[in-house]
Write a structure and sequence with these properties.
rod-shaped, 3 helices, about 70% helix, about 70 residues, mainly alpha
Length: about 70
């Protein structure tokens, strides 16, 4: 069973970072949808929401590229 786990492409830390990134993405899209301005042209829809979504995508990119150090 130990040999099989060495062949996995991502570690537990990668998956945890991916889940955090997905949560941040959902928060960003919900923030954009909360904008009460007409057609979503307020601060939440045009500024804050997209910034949060971009942070979520950066976290996702980092989660995919992150390579944990093996302490063996």
């Amino acid at each position: 069973m130990g040999k099989n786990s060495d062949n996995l492409p991502f570690s537990k830390q990668n998956y945890l970072l991916m889940l955090i990134g997905i949560a941040v993405l959902i928060i960003g899209f919900v923030t954009m949808s909360l904008d009460k301005a007409e057609y979503g042209f307020g601060f939440l829809g045009l500024t804050l929401g997209p910034i949060i979504v971009m942070v979520g995508f950066v976290i996702q990119f980092f989660a995919i590229m992150f390579k944990p150090k093996n302490n063996k």
